[in-house]
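Hi F.,

I've been meaning to write this up properly since the lab meeting, where we talked about keeping a consistent format for the predictions we share between groups. The idea is simple: the sequence comes first, exactly as it goes in, then the structure tokens exactly as they come out, then a line or two of notes. No screenshots and no reformatting. I'm using this chain as the first example so we have something concrete to point to.
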Amino acid sequence: MNSDVNSPTLETDATWTTADAEALYRVDAWSDGYFFVNDAGHVAVSPEADRSRAIDLKRLVDDLRQEGLTFPVLIRFHDILRARVEHLNAAFARAIEEFGYANRYTSVYPIKVNQLHEVVEEILDAGRPYGLGLECGSKAELVAALPHLESDDTLLICNGYKDPSMLRLILTGQQLGKSVIPVVEKFGEFEGLLRLAREMDVRPRFGVRIHLSTRGAGKWAESSGDRSKFGVTIPELVRIIERLKAERLEDALVLLHFHLGSQIADIQPLKQAVKEVAQVYVQLHARGIGVRYIDVGGGLGVNYASGYSDHAGSINYSLQEYANSIVYAVKEVCDAAHVPVPALVSESGRALTAHHSVLIVEALQAYRKDEIQPDFRPAEADHQVIHELYATLEQVRAYRTAPPDRLPARLLEAYHDAAEKRQESNLLFSLGYLPLEQKALAENLYWSICRAIHEQVDFDAELPVPAELLALDDRLIDQYLCDFSVFQSMLDHWAIGQRFPIMPIARLDEPPDRRGVLVDLTCDSDGKVSHYVDADEEKDFLELHTPRPDEPYFLAFFLMGAYQDIMGDMHNLFGRTTEVHVYFDEEEPNNYYIEKTIPGATVEEMLSLVQYFPNDLHRRMNGLIRRKIEAGHLRPKAGMEILARYDAMFKQMTYYNPQDA
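Output, unedited:
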């Protein structure tokens, strides 16, 4: 990795430990025990949350590099998927036993969270002992999910607005004896379902999404409440009941559904919503409607940020509390009404998939503000403004022995002097009185003064720090250029400000000595990571290490398994990254084996998505070169070499390849 290392590295703190690294990057808050820092100072992965049985992520990355894989690489730890399925079902089993709930729980996986076939198959396989089902929200997802219903008892919940062709396929699934349940979103959809059922001579089974008065909390609060686009209102539900009774289809409505959002941050709205839908259930039961399931939708949260807090990206409950709250609330309402409890269903997707994917990105370059060398002394021939800036720098250095109560005022005065001299140098340069080299030297001195001031500011002191000096904390943050695209690999960060845990995969046994902002390869100014996981919600930098010459510096982006895989954008046509599927195995070297490697997108593949094709591009390029040859500007052999070099690009991966230098 290259770097403009023009300032000294901080001395290593002998008291620093790997526990300090875990605390700095808030690992305990978001990892659920699957990730930790081992004694070597490397990130380790344990599918069983057991530190004695783990995969060293640094060794895995080294092995992938030796095999010639190009980065960035998305690593899927499939054992974590299985563990998440097991933990979810175990939590509900404990709650059912504790509260004496006389019915069962079934989880269904909403494939919109991550439709990749290997992910869906792994979750289905892990969930087979628990009767895990699927949820779809579109025609394409329905077509993908229906053939996976190996057992007639496996649920397939069909959400979203459904046109006649989708409803026909759903009813066809019911004709096959499968447990395919469309969830009606509006009264008009209900009428369309009944009409098609009569045409196909099918006695339909369906669910209703209830438009609850309870409103969720967090980024996805608008998924519920009065402004939600989802759900059947209570007046519409009454009309549906009347219609079912008129047509003697009281047993057709089998499921009540609600959804508070993709990530429920607060447990209290969930408890309220469950009680509200349970009241609807007991009311329907009293009217002879044969509802068998209550589906609490998705939203089981993941701690992306700083743990159980009110920060964005955090949740204030555990998995067990989530299960307990649902089971207890439904039982309480049903017991009070002397009504048998229904089977429970949840559509947890984020909580199942988020942890299993880790994006590995190489930091290619580290940039910090240009400063003078430590041994710099101005020459006699240097411009007066250079001598004045240097005098200010020397003055700031001498302030290290100044009384603390007078230091902020002196530093502020020095900053003002430096800013004035910088402005003067800009004016002199624009008028032609300052050579380019002297202008560069003035910039170096200005930033050296800023850093010297910043190093002496006590941000934790009781004395107030002037705003202009506080601003230096942001202005002196480094930029680390990383080999990835924010728009492709972490679209939620760009779109909704979602924080994702990020940390180096190695050197965690030494303290980081730099603060950096991660910027990507795209030409877009938004192509950067602007917010980072911390107890401070406003944190806008990441603690990093000074790069070492000829040693790659890799960063891991965690909790990437939910939505990011499938929602990636094609900004700058970077495309999907290389993907590796890893399984834990203690009998294999380094405790793992690679089940599958899927190469990242090539230039040719990405171009074809926007209607550029190799044959046409080759023909056009060949024409350009031949015209240059015919005009005598290019020799034929050189022209053919250029064409071959151009054609070779079609098979290249879209991301930066440092080995291709």
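Notes:
Confidence is low (pLDDT under 50) at residues 2-12, 220-224.
Residues 334 and 341 are 6 Å apart (CA to CA).

If this format works for you, I'll send the rest the same way.

G.
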